[in-house]
Design brief:
This protein is an alpha+beta fold. It has a domain at 55-131: TolA/TonB C-terminal domain (2-Layer Sandwich), CATH 3.30.2420. It has 3 helices and 3 strands; from the N terminus they run H-H-E-E-H-E. It has a 3-stranded antiparallel beta sheet with strand order 2-1-3. Mean pLDDT is 80; it is low at 2-11.
Length: 131
């Protein structure tokens, strides 16, 4: 009987020592270099697929304004869900606010894969605009 009580006490102490362990947050594994490269490749693929729409921002608009040609350096933020939350024209040689706004609108509509680190990320990319 004594050994049974002793075993019960030891078992109880062991369980008491484990209390709270289940509440500890487990850090997710850091993404591998391959996962980060794959994400960069996926972002590049979205940009490449959307380049014709950006390039078309230089076409004559409905108001009859001159066609715009040049580069628009755009900074954009990709949020956790892959949507673009913010776009800022850093530099433009188009001399066309309409073309610059068009580039912003086109990029704002893109959807990217979520970043493997689970955070939003900012990119700056130079886009060519032409009619």
């Amino acid at each position: 009987m004594r050994s049974w009580i002793l075993a019960l006490l030891i078992g109880g102490l062991a369980l008491a020592g484990c209390k709270g362990k289940e509440d500890e947050a487990v850090e997710p594994a850091a993404p591998t270099e391959e996962e980060l490269e794959a994400h960069d490749d996926a972002v590049s693929a979205v940009i490449k697929a959307g380049k014709p729409d950006v390039k078309a921002c230089g076409a004559t608009d409905k108001t009859g304004a001159e066609a715009a040609v040049g580069k628009v350096s755009l900074t954009f933020v990709i949020e956790l869900d892959g949507k673009v939350s913010k776009t800022v024209v850093e530099e433009s040689s188009t001399n066309s606010e309409g073309a610059d706004a068009c580039v912003q609108a086109v990029v704002q509509a893109w959807e990217f894969p979520a970043h493997p680190l689970g955070e939003s990320i900012e990119y700056t990319y130079p886009f060519d605009v032409s009619p």
